[in-house]
Design goal:
Strand order of the largest sheet: 3-2-1-4
Largest sheet: 4 strands, parallel
Order of helices and strands: EHEHEHEH
Distance between the termini: 31 Å
Low-confidence stretches: none
Radius of gyration: 14 Å
Length: 127
């Protein structure tokens, strides 16, 4: 897309180590390039923070917000939204797996609307 608007993916995490690496991989292979991934971890007690640091160190699209205190689910998501710099914000749960063309298709679909939404498919731990 010519003059592609920046898309911010807002990701709030908490004790999500089981699915986080697969999820981050699905975000990083998006065929839409003008994006940032803004992540706030809510003081996880498992290996979530270590996974996030590893990915953030190796990819400049990821902006990992500093951990400070436990906000709870809603306020943690609100924090990610407030730190996004894109024209559009796409919320992402910590166990989502995105199709490689999700962001591009949403941007192409939004036109002059305020909101674009895509269907979801529920899956278990085996995908």
């Amino acid at each position: 897309m010519l003059n592609s608007p920046k898309v911010s993916i807002a990701l709030a995490t908490y004790n999500g180590e089981d699915y986080l690496a697969e999820q981050l991989e699905s975000l990083l292979i998006q065929d839409y390039q003008n994006l940032e991934i803004v992540i706030s971890d809510d003081c996880s007690s498992d290996g979530t923070w270590d996974i996030l640091e590893k990915y953030a160190k190796n990819n400049n699209k990821i902006r990992l917000l500093p951990r400070d205190f436990n906000r709870g689910y809603v306020k943690n998501f609100a924090r990610t939204f407030s730190e996004c710099t894109g024209t559009f914000i796409s919320p992402c749960d910590q166990d989502d797996i995105w199709h490689p063309n999700k962001v591009r298709r949403l941007v192409e679909s939004i036109e002059n609307y305020d909101l674009a939404y895509c269907n979801s498919r529920f899956c278990d731990s085996l995908g």
